[in-house]
Amino acid sequence: MVRLLVLFAVLLMLSAISLVTARFQSRELFVTSERLSAQAHELDTEWRRLQLDRAELARNVRIDRIARDDLHLVPSTPDRTVYIRSGQSGAASVAPAQGGRP
């Protein structure tokens, strides 16, 4: 009878230790899950901000302004267009535009 009582006491202690360990691991996993969830939210917010930045940087108005102001580019006109004819031997002949294509 004493042996059976000792056996039950040992099993009860092992069960209690197992329960405490399981709860501790559960809390650790919950904290890790919450931390990763917060990180995913931050990354999603950053992704959306980057998408907006990309859209802003690719706007035609901005590209046109940079081309005109910073690079000093001007729109092409027919009198400034040069057509290069290929298929001739030697150097390629250059023909200035006469108001239309050759």
Say how many strands there are.
Answer: 2
Subunit arrangement of the protein? single chain
What order do the strands of the largest sheet run in, or round the barrel if closed?
Answer: 1-2
Bin the strand percentage: 5-15%
Task: Compute the number of structural domains.
Answer: 1
- Ranges where pLDDT stays below 50 over 5 or more residues in a row are none
Describe how the helices and strands are arranged.
Layout (H helix, E strand, L loop, with lengths): L1 H56 L2 H10 L12 E4 L7 E4 L6
Describe the structure.
- By secondary structure, this protein is mainly alpha-helical.
- The chain has one domain (2-96).
- It is 65% helix and 8% strand.
- The protein has two helices and two strands, in the order ααββ.
- The chain has helices at residues 2-57, 60-69, and strands spanning 82-85, 93-96.
- A two-stranded antiparallel ribbon has the order 1-2.
- β1 and β2 form a beta hairpin.
- The longest helix has 56 residues, at 2-57.
- It is rod-shaped and about 115 Å long.
- The N and C termini lie far apart (114 Å).
